[in-house]
Batch of 3 targets.
Target 1
Amino acid sequence: MTQPLVQQHDGVLFDLDGVLYAGPSAVPGAPEAVASLTAQGTPHGFVTNNASRSAESVASHLSELGILASPAQVIGSAPAGVALMAEQIPAGARVLVTGSAYLASLVEAAGFETVPSAAENPDAVIQGFEPTLGWADLAEAAYAVNNGAAWFATNLDYSVPRDRGIAPGNGALVQAVSYATGQSPQAAGKPEPTMFLQAAQTLGLRNPLVVGDRLDTDILGGNRAGFSTALVLTGVNSAEDAVHAEHTMQPNWILRTLEDLFNAEHRGLQ
């Protein structure tokens, strides 16, 4: 008899939006699934492209939804984006942050000076998801990039699942600036493999299962990291999307819900 999928791996790396929650609400069955992993002693972490909140805030939100989590389990794209920028921009440089206060705090902690507008002649722009961003914010980013500032993005997700449906993500806002500048940013976050590898190292995993709802970020990134991947059908992409996707974006498994992690029968794609 085939083992349950979770028993074929030494841990699980979850995406968040569309997998464990959508906006302020838990995905049905997600708290129970994570609780089962905890009861079984299976290590698990949370890998998210959402750069608007700190690891502490994410862990607190998960706990409020009945999903026990600690900040150490949360790997996000905001620190990855700042680290990418720090590799190329010297400490002390001026940076325009088009994103959240959390992202700005990370930029300052890394030794950069944050500035409020393109009029301050920033050396770089870093852009991350923040629901309150508006046209004026994107315009300032475009002015700075057109004036020669280096441009970085925490991630390039075009959409994000919310409680009311699918909404524009950071990639869509990045695209608006790209149209105005004719340029593209250097990006951290998924689908780059870095965060998955960092999460596996943090948790001491060698053969984790990556579970996500997006083929172009979660599944592609997990595949690039050399890990097994599972698409769960509670978010952006469908089973039909997976079947017709490029090979690099095809998951090893398709899950109807997270309950399928514990079933002996599960649908394989590769």
Note: The domain at 78-187 is CATH 3.40.50.1000 (Rossmann fold).
Target 2
Amino acid sequence: MITSPAHLRALAAAGEWTAPTAGVLDGHQQANLVIVPRSLAFEFLLYCTRNPKPCPVIAVTDPGDPVLRFGTTEADLRTTLPRYRVWRNGELVAEPTDITAYWQDDAVAFLLGCSHTFEGPLRAAGIPVAHTAPPVYITNIETTPAGPFSGPLLVSMRAVPGHLAATAVEITYRYPTGHGTPVHIGDPSVIGIESLSAPDFGPPPAIPPDSTPMFWACGVTPQLAISNTPYAITHYPGHMFVFDHTP
């Protein structure tokens, strides 16, 4: 049993937790990870400020320092996520559970808000949300570019009983570091999704009768925006960093 975010991070650092973090430690802030070289850090920050829905910035590390210090949270970002992705010139080259060997002296890490953060409050309100990572889709909505960073918006989907859709909007509005309110509700084809049964990331969803598909901006978006980046490291989809604090 996971007793605290520090406990989860310790298990990840020891290689004993490599699973997704969805449904774990409800109420705590979870975050996506993007690491870029210092030479591109300002442009990536600019990309985030131009696209705050998919990229809500929570914390940024000093160049070359792998240790995050934020409030009561102090953690070595090279080991305390369950799983990572390493990119070279936009190509995926590794999916390790420890990035110590890939860390560069000029690396800058960004922690970006994640929708797992609001799933606990949704469940507490009686909205059925799975304890597994949600399906994620690439949309036809383009993000606003900055420097070499550009690409489509990705969204996570949750099927919400129709009579609770307004409640879901109201609750997620309170969590801007969980991507806030949905970017789309209803017909997925409007945002370029041909089939809900074929997500780009994550498992195919169950769509119960009388439910409404609701789509939130997703922190996997930067993983498609780094195609012109010589060096980048991100979280593996669904495998987040968990802070000590609650949002």
Note: Residues 117-222 form a domain with the PSTPO5379-like fold fold (CATH 3.30.2040.10).
Target 3
Amino acid sequence: MDTQTLSAHQRLIESTKDVSHRLETSHHLDPLMDRIGDSRFVLLGEASHGTHEYYTWRTAITQRLIEEKGFSFVAVEGDWPDCYRLNRFVKGYKDSGLTEEEVLRQFDRWPTWMWANWEVAALLQWMKDYNNNVIKNRKVGFYGLDVYSLGESLEAILQYLDKEDPQIAKETRKVMECFESYGGTEGQAYAMATRLVPKACEKEVVKMLADITSHISSYDSDPEMVFSTGQNAKVAVNAERYYRAMVGSGPESWNIRDRHMAETLDDLMEFHGKDSTKCVIWEHNTHIGDARATPMARSGMVNVGQLVREKYGEEDVVLVGFGSYKGSVIAGRSWGAPMEEMTVPEAPEGSWEYLLHSMNEENRLLIFDPDKNKELMSQRLNHRAIGVIYSPGADRYSNYVPSRIPQRYDAFLYIDETEAVHPLHLKANSKEMPDTYPWNL
């Protein structure tokens, strides 16, 4: 570094030290618990989809939020049908599975390792044990917010309606027939088949949602299963829109997906009683970190963190980012490729991770305060973001999102060196098109 650059770097280090706390055990999360206070929305990020420490620290935070602050459910960047099975398992529903491993092994959509891993199994075991010791209306749930599960959601709807409403089930089968005429309910086939047919099955899924919505109050079943059926119908509508938009360019498909996740969160809050409910959300940093503090905003993109802040107010929302300097990660070389453990190289000079590493090689928790972060508030630093597709050799030249960190997050967990998550599956099953993260647009 030249003298001028070194001086600026040192000022940033000093500014960061002012808001830095030790991070070794769950007791060191006390400053974060104080920052959260009575907030009802805590969004926990991750800088990759395959890092052990991101899962374990999110679990530690989640446990404290549930035990100490009465949080009601966990919502994740996962598909509704798969995660709803986990929800029924941790709440002890009849015939919901004998072990967390048994239920997690049903995640067969690539990238399987995101949720079918031993770290999540540990969280589910803890949640089930916790729920066994509380009354029914205090049991903590586990839900998926994502939009990818077009086929699975339609199948879940039919399975339910065949018992509850055979006439609507008959109409719903017409939706399946429409998708079959365009290559089926797998997103890639449908997206490619509809390039020259702008509307495709849009009318059919919208009608299905309207039919289910108009009849749902009369269904004689457990309330949560009724709610789940309605959510699967909304997934089908938005998945159809998402996959059609995916073949085009621009931010539309990203925005459809993140708006769907934010709307699903709203529905969950309403279902649980929005005035008294608190929730914790697990998603990638690019979803939970406010998009307005990154180039995403200039591209016309929004994300969950921004949408939740705008709707519920910044005083009720806490965004927590994660990152590391080096380590290992589970990812694939291309979409659908076998999962493998890869090296995450040292972060390059000029990045947020390099800055934190240069302070000292220790894990730390940062709690941002605009009054103490005037130097940092105006700085745009590169911040690493690894998706399910990764090339360590290109890390220095890609996989970084320029960010005003204290505006993007309210707090940040820095792990100097990380290790890969531990998947349950030996092989990944590829069915869908890749997610389009902002740094690949």
Note: The first strand starts at residue 20 and ends at 22.
